[in-house]
Write a structure and sequence with these properties.
single chain, mainly alpha, Cytochrome p450, three-stranded antiparallel sheet, two-stranded antiparallel sheet, 14 helices, about 55% helix, binds protoporphyrin IX containing FE
Length: about 375
């Protein structure tokens, strides 16, 4: 083969796939844009739809911060993209966010990616709309009333004290980030589901915690349910949690209502009984799983330093706003306060690596798991 033929065939071998990829990307963009709401005459914002089916999910997952910075520089505060299987318009900036949050049910409507809808379920609060959302939120908010919250505090204190004591007794350093995740999971199990981890036993607690973390890790995945895919793993983990919740519900259904406010799941069951509606097991399992998940993994960007010029009320909204405002806001704030009191009252601590570097993908967390040494006030490390 002469040099000319070799070069031509090498060029064809390289050029052809590139050409095919560009054509596929263009066709994909045309297909996505053709699905635009025909009744809306406003133009779509600038942006790109990425590769067929994957959209720009891979870039977003692999280089989260850089991806967002590049997009912001190129297209400004509002742009279109394609993420986690859905065409998406990303909106930032306090004023724009205010319009979106206050426009829920009128201007816009929450629509989580397909994997979130499948794993958490169509009946959970985050996936409900209009009157169904309004009604269910009112019911769920009973579990976070002033009275209910006051009832939760002694159990919060008990769990927090137990953990702080374990950390104080530990000879080696404590990895605070996983320890806190375990602690929060135990508290959620007890206060929201009425399920005492002591009664479950260490092995079952471990299985549930692992399932919960696996579900959380895979909540945002491509919507492909085949063995070993993210969605498949997320659903498998979700089923383990549902099985435990179902057991709890059945146990609670056998108990006669005594008017005592125990845990969030009990409140939801009592509400169903009062209204005379048949207990919807699936809806209860979905609501309980959502509460367990607790919303704390949502929208980590909201914790980043507010941008200059974003000084309005909507410049920093860790708990969201408008009708979609977090139901667990007061619960989370009380829990944090009780935690700080327990910690400061009982011990001193040292972060062994100093101030931690944080990673933001998929959620904000310390890269080193936060190793720390705890000591009672009277002694030294
Ligand atoms: C520090 C802790 C927490 C933070 C930062 C947080 C943050 C958020 C945010 C930003 C939203 C709004 C999402 C949206 O705009 O659609 C939200 C919604 C929600 N959160 Fe939280 N959350 C926290 C704790 C909790 C806890 C402890 C629970 C349950 C016990 C909870 C349950 C929910 C639920 C059910 C929603 C959906 C509300 C709706 O769609 O109407 N969150 N959370």
């Amino acid at each position: 083969m002469d040099l000319y033929t070799l070069l031509t065939s090498a060029l064809c071998t390289l050029a052809l796939p590139v050409l095919l990829l560009l054509t596929a990307a263009k066709l994909w963009e045309v297909y996505c844009l053709s699905r635009k709401d025909a009744s809306c005459r406003n133009p779509l914002p600038p942006g790109t739809m990425g590769l067929p089916f994957f959209g720009e999910t891979l870039q977003m997952v692999l280089q989260r911060r850089k991806f967002l910075q590049v997009k912001r520089r190129k297209y400004g505060r509002i742009y279109k993209t394609h993420l986690f299987g859905s065409p998406t318009v990303r909106v930032t900036g306090a004023e724009n966010v205010r319009q979106i949050l206050l426009g829920e049910h009128k201007l816009v409507s929450v629509h989580w990616p397909a994997s979130v809808r499948t794993i958490l379920g169509a009946g959970c609060l985050s996936n409900l709309h209009d009157s169904e959302h309004k009604y269910t939120k009112k019911v769920i908010m009973q579990a976070f009333s002033r009275e209910a919250l006051a009832n939760y505090v002694p159990l919060m204190e008990e769990e927090l004290r137990r953990s702080v004591n374990l950390w104080l007794q530990s000879d080696s350093c404590v990895l605070v980030y996983p320890a806190i995740k375990r602690l929060m999971f135990r508290i959620a199990m007890r206060l929201l589901l009425g399920c005492d981890p002591q009664r479950l036993g260490r092995e079952q607690e471990e299985t549930l915690l692992e399932a919960f973390e696996e579900m959380t890790r895979n909540l945002f995945s491509l919507p492909i349910d085949v063995p070993f895919s993210g969605l498949y793993r997320g659903l498998r983990a979700r089923n383990i949690i549902h099985a435990q919740i179902e057991e709890n519900i059945k146990e609670k259904l056998q108990r006669e209502p005594d008017g005592q406010c125990r845990d969030a799941l009990q409140l939801l069951i009592d509400h169903s009984r009062r209204t005379g509606e048949p207990v919807n097991l699936q809806a209860l399992k979905e609501s309980a799983t959502e509460l367990l998940f607790g919303g704390h993994e949502f929208n980590p960007d909201r914790f980043l330093t507010p941008l200059p010029g974003d000084s309005s009320r909507f410049g920093f909204i860790p708990f969201g706003g408008g009708v979609r405002c977090c139901v667990g806001k007061e619960f989370a704030k009380i829990l944090l306060k009780v935690f700080i009191v327990e910690l400061c009252r009982n011990c001193d601590w040292e972060l062994l690596n100093g101030s931690p570097a944080m990673k933001t993908s998929p959620i904000i967390c310390p890269v080193d798991n936060l190793p720390a040494k705890f000591k009672p006030f009277a002694s030294s490390i």
